[in-house]
Amino acid sequence: MTLPAHLLIQAMYEAINERNVPKALEYIDPDCCYQDLNFPQPFQGKAAVGELFTESCKGMPADLLFVVDDITEGDALAVGILWHVELGGIPLPNGRGVSFCRLSEETGKLIFARDLVEPVIKPGKGAFVILRLIAPLVRLLLKPITAEEQIASQNSANSTELPAQQLWISRLLWLLAGAYIYILFLSPPGQIMPAEPVWAIQSETWQEVLNESLNFFFILPLANTLGIQYLEAPAVHPVDQAFFNFAIAWIFIFLPLLLADMRSRKLPKVAIWSMALFLTNAFMIPYMAMRAAMPIPEAVPSPAKGFLARAFGWTGLLVSGIALFWFGFVGPEFGTVAERCQYFGTQLTTSRVSVAFCVDLVFFTLFQIVLLGAVETSPQKRWLRFIPFWGLATWLII
Fold first, then answer.
1. Domains of the chain by range and CATH?
2. Per the confidence metrics, is the pTM higher than 0.70?
3. Fewest beta carbons less than 10 Å away: which of 89, 180, 234, 247?
4. Is 350 exposed, middle or buried (0-12, 13-18, 19+ CB in 10 A)?
């Protein structure tokens, strides 16, 4: 006799708590799709689900148990479950979860399940801020374009009499922005990029990014070195910390250049730059796409750079110098310069964050060439645009 859905799921959990995987698999349909959102891919089929159950039971203490807090009983084939994990009767931190399960009408066994576990990092209201920032890009990049919108866009382009080349550059940049967001943030692991996408990122990766951010511009580690212990600097591999700060320093010194660019004077430059400090080219590429669709202004003399530009330039040079020193010499326990270079090479094949920053540096180089070439008219200074980072920093100072 087939068990009702709530009794079958409870029996499955009891078998897992007993570490009896064969018994738990008696309740699984051969075509079961089990989505544990801790993993980037669903477990398809009874054998794959068995591997998941086996791994979840392997080496676990006997008193580590799944406890069902509440389960629906009104549907013979589907249930919703509230549960938590406890050890020796003590609920584990971040151990709560919710699940949805559906049984097969033919076999009466579990055919679909989705587990959502309480996240380790809880951004709180920050999640709403991130959604507000990303939502316009998602709507713009992922929303299908209707025929009416396409006609309106063409009419708008014709009314401004923009050259076809500018329009194509803008469209290519928008396409590039979509590819950048998909490949670096959303693509499944192993498809194009290593490690997890943002929707399946592991808590260790979030912690690594958080630690690097807390050591922004090396302020906290240097303060600790000077005996200022208001907050302990997180431990981060010096190669990762140096690379992170160098990339952030580059986007940091872009602000005076953006402000000097007359072609994009109608764009919210400070707001875009502020968001780019956190998500780099997820905002810089769309900015360049919008800029490309704007009319080219008449020739204007090179801008007079004041205190703000020089302050940004000197800050960039200082942070880049510290980053180079940090990369090679801070923390002798991390090995020689050659060993650190080898570690960096390994990161490029295993860490999506490291690859993303490398991609960012390539785009920063291209954008620096374009923007500085548009702003600086003097041949004596214009060549600085071809020197990545240090050319821009030097231009800001002189």
1. 5-117 (3.10.450.50), 126-397 (no CATH)
2. no
3. 89
4. exposed
